[in-house]
Design a protein that fits this description.
Oligomer: single chain
Structural class: mainly beta
Order of helices and strands: EEEEEEEEEEE
Distance between the termini: 40 Å
Number of strands: 11
Shape: globular
Amino acid sequence: QLQLVESGGGLVQPGGSLRLSCAASGFTVDDYSVAWFRQVPGKEREGLSCIRSTGGGPKYADSVKDRFAISIDHVKNAVYLQMNSLKVEETGIYYCAADLIGSCSVAPGRFRYWGQGTQVTVSS
């Protein structure tokens, strides 16, 4: 059974950093595209970044480019999202998702498998 479990969320001050983890089981992240999304209250789910072991480098949304970094740990079968210079308006639930798609995408509709999410709160 394919499963994704996010962790690493919490409370951080504006300008601070967090590292989110997405632990995968039931499949190998090397074979899938894995992406991070954010759900802010009152807004649509936003794609942040995607990574795929084969076929080009990671993708980032313009809103997080140069501040967030996605990476894969092939041994731990996990994907991480390092988030720096966080802003108050980035408070929300952060999800990872995976699917067998030919090229990396940050479009939520392209992913069938989702984790339960982890809460990130940016506040002073």
